[in-house]
Amino acid sequence: MADSMIACPKCGEKIALTSAIEGPIAERLKAELEGKLAAERAKLVAQAKANAEAQLAGQLGELRAQLGEKAKLLETAQATELELRKQRREFFRVPLTLPAVLTPVVDGVRAPERV
């Protein structure tokens, strides 16, 4: 590594930086920058997480609303189906009892016999 020169802050004398002096300074700067990087990374991760949670909360709300609507439609359809099944049962029950109900009426209104 080439020797670098720095100036003394008190007297202004130029001092050559050797590996022995540069090493600790470089390590300190590296640790300082890594700390800043870690803090910035944590900030960005938290921000991204908050944005994602907000977006997903909105989507979840929409999906819950859709689910509620579909549940109401299903409930209505099931009630309609139940009513139609009851009507069908009654409809098919009527023909079985219809001759018994109509026979006396029909017998009383028979056409005159032909001679």
Textual characterization of the structure:
The protein is mainly alpha-helical and 115 residues long. The protein has one domain (16-100). The chain has one helix and two strands. It has one helix at residues 19-108; strands at 4-7, 14-17. Strands 1-2 form a two-stranded antiparallel sheet. A hairpin with a 6-residue loop joins strand 1 (4-7) and strand 2. The protein is rod-shaped and about 145 Å long. The chain starts with a strand and ends in a 7-residue tail after the last helix. 0% of the residues are buried. The mean pLDDT is 84.
- The assigned structural class equals mainly alpha
Strand line-up of the largest beta sheet: 1-2
N/C terminus separation: 139 Å
Approximately how much helix is present in the residues? over 70%
Mean pLDDT: 84
Radius of gyration: 46 Å
Per the principal axes of the C-alpha atoms, what is the gross shape?
A: rod-shaped
What's the number of extended β-strand segments? 2
Largest sheet: 2 strands, antiparallel
Number of separate helices: 1
In short:
The chain has 115 residues and is mainly alpha-helical. It has one helix spanning 19-108, and strands at residues 4-7, 14-17.
Write the layout of secondary structure elements.
Blueprint: E1 4-7, E2 14-17, H1 19-108
Antiparallel strand pairs: 1-2
